[in-house]
Amino acid sequence: MSQAVSPTPDLRTQASPDAAPWWRQAVVYQVYPRSFADTDGNGLGDIAGITSRADYLDELGVDAVWLSPFYPSALADGGYDVADYRDVDPKLGTLADFDEMVATLHARGIRVVVDIVPNHTSDLHEWFQEALLAEPGSPARERYIFREGTGPDGSLPPSDWVSAFGGPAWERVPDGQWYLHHFAVEQPDLNWSNPEVRADFVRTLRFWSDRGVDGFRIDVAHMLTKDLAEVLPSQAELDAMPRDGQHPTIDRDDVHEVYAEWRAVFDSYDPPRTAVAEAWVDRARVPLYARSESLGQAFNFDLLEADFDASQFREIVTANLELAGASGSSSTWVLSNHDVVRHATRYGLPDAERGADGRPSRKHGQEWLLSGGREPELDRARGERRARAATLFVLGLPGSAYLYQGEELGLHEVAEIEVGQRQDPTFFRSPGFDLGRDGCRVPLPWETSGPSFGFGPGEAHLSQPEWMGDYAVERQVDHDDSTLNLYRRALALRTNLQAGESLDWFETGRADVLRFGRPNGWQIVTNFGDEPYALDAAGLSVVLASDPNAAPGVVAPASTVWLAP
Fold first, then answer.
1. How far is CA 401 from CA 27, 94, 392, 491, in A?
2. Exactly one of 46, 63, 97, 278 is catalytic; which is it?
3. Which of 272, 342, 414, 553 is most deeply packed, by most CB within 10 A?
4. Contact criterion met (CB below 8 Å) for 314 and 505
5. For residue range 307-324, what is the model confidence (pLDDT) as tens digits?
6. Please, how many CA atoms are within 13 Å of residue 547, restricted to the half-sphere of its CB?
7. Residue 451 near residue 469, CB atoms below 8 Å
8. Model confidence over 453-473: pLDDT tens digits?
9. Structure pTM?
10. Are 160 and 233 in contact (CB under 8 A)?
């Protein structure tokens, strides 16, 4: 085993002792390792690939890199089925490669955040393999959630619960018992009432912290603890139960006992390690995860479900800044990630159909994906224009921004993936209804040609359509008006213009135009409409515009400008 690497002191946003912690207004770049860069030609991105692109990340101007799981995995769920929490998948490299990556990124002032998947393990994890060989009621089985079946001979599952990926949430083992898996069948849920489970994850957090990791993203942070009655409720009854902290499986108050223990671990380091919760919970309960006694920050996913619409954006910003104030944390802003259709594509499709609660009735872009990208028609140019505008809007907000690899290239979702190449368990468990998330996980194009557009020396694990060459880094890097260079300029300016964590809304006279200012006089104006907006910029200068061809004195349709004194 290689030696752990300590974080270097000269990080990009290193603060003085009395300054705000680095993460509060950081730009964090999400790397999906298996699709970022491949150095050994096996078709999978690897840890050395991230190291090889450290200069690219540095020139982009990000403060931190968040790595989706890189642990040993059979890829039943894109790496979120973890077989060993304290190692690197051999197909992606070694712990020595990981240490080199951390040192290389730290030397450029870029911090490292890693994904932790605590709700479930892989069915290949040594604990689960031991449980399969053990007797019912044994200590090995008590690490997971095993139950006897129902019916005269126990041949029916303990309940009719449905997995998040479709199909039953219970799987029977040869001796007749059933285990719970809220996700893929290869992802058995852990029993967080078991002290051994809790202690082992503390060891995992210390293992990576000791290697120089600066923070953790906690997968499905709202689902760890469970309180399962002897007779389980039906799925319909479960869905109807209030999520008030006492729900049997979701967003339970006692999960914060776990995170209080983790917080003590994080705070034992200097500087303290950070954490951000993936918590799909009611808005009012987000501060429980974001407060300093718990994980310290929580994802705000509202913009993932929003149309390119001024009223929706303003309501989301206002509500989430209030939540940040309630928790004492800073808000997070996300337009794309590894689980949703890329925002350049969402904004090029018709607005999402919404239910009575105002939320999309289906994942935005699902019909388009099911049609192979043919219907409804995608307006690529409009989507890219809106995506650039939304990005500058978000990067102007107080709080931290999370970018997903490839969005800085203006990449669209890939719909044209052959059935034989698909990998997402959602596709296999929801046939004809959900194609899954493979389309946003297609490897990045670094060059305009080659077997995988520079992703690696050979073919990629998910095939890239020909149009991806038009978005390659090689094509954009020397094009002044490219999306890549817009991101680079925006991140550099954001660092220079950054101010306190507040904003003031200004009246614009139009419902489809938003304007806000930051404490140092920096202002952002976004035109969500289809008509130009006459800009009153007295005493201010336009320092950046998402539309490089806009006429002076106006904010072009579907565009954003940044103003500074």
1. 5, 30, 11, 10
2. 278
3. 342
4. yes
5. 999 999 999 999 999 999
6. 22
7. no
8. 999 999 999 999 999 999 999
9. 0.94
10. no
